[in-house]
Input
Amino acid sequence: PDESRLRREAEALVSEGFQVSVFALRRPTEGARDDVGGVKVYRVPLMKKRGSKARYLFEFGVFFLLAAVLTPWLQLRHHYRVIQLYNQPDFLIFALFIPKMMGARIVFDYRDAMPESFICKYGLTMTHPIIRLLLWFEHAGLVLSDRVVTVHEPFREQAIERGARPEHVCVFLNFPDPRLFVRNCVPAAKDPSVSLYLAYHGTIAERFGLDVALRAVARVRDAMPGLRFTVFGEGCGVPEVLRVIAGLGLDGTTSYGGGLRLAAAPQRGPSRGLGVVPG
Output
């Protein structure tokens, strides 16, 4: 339920009268089956743990096998018209062959580039055998899907460059949920010592350019003594972000707020300030 893009898509479909199921990972506190906003959720006993390549491959492999077994069973029960593949991993496309042959159309939600994410995480190059294999998986997902949905125009262009048909690719921006983030709400009382709040919320990894924002804060902090910047999120880049904060002497200006559940975002984020999307 904390994957905001997926949740909004699923709940929007439910509001239009469709029956929607989600096949997902499972936290220790969650049940195997659930109903979230009218969406049926099926969870497998596997939790995401960021770490080594071996851990990623284990998670991807186990989820692939479970998806390959359970999606045909669910297709027989519910006769889905559409199955949406939410990457990563891209090779989940091969777990959907049987449902596709049974009549389901496949939508590839291309929200992140798996080859580039592995390059950033593990220092590989585009010619590395693992990256070549990931590029092939990505190409297969883009070609074998009936439609591709992505997050912005650069990814749309990349999807087409890597095999998707232009007429089959569209952009769906990840806007804030107006039910959670109310534009005209009365802001909380402001700390008089703070002149500007900044906040980042999202995956913390080198490829998202968070170091750009941190270095920008370091350059303007003397001119803006009331500036406060909070970083929320999880990812392999957290140790590096903490190192940069310490190295630039930003401890009094910048803080790391840890991971942030979707429902808590409006309360934890600054009510008077700006969201930062570095790049």
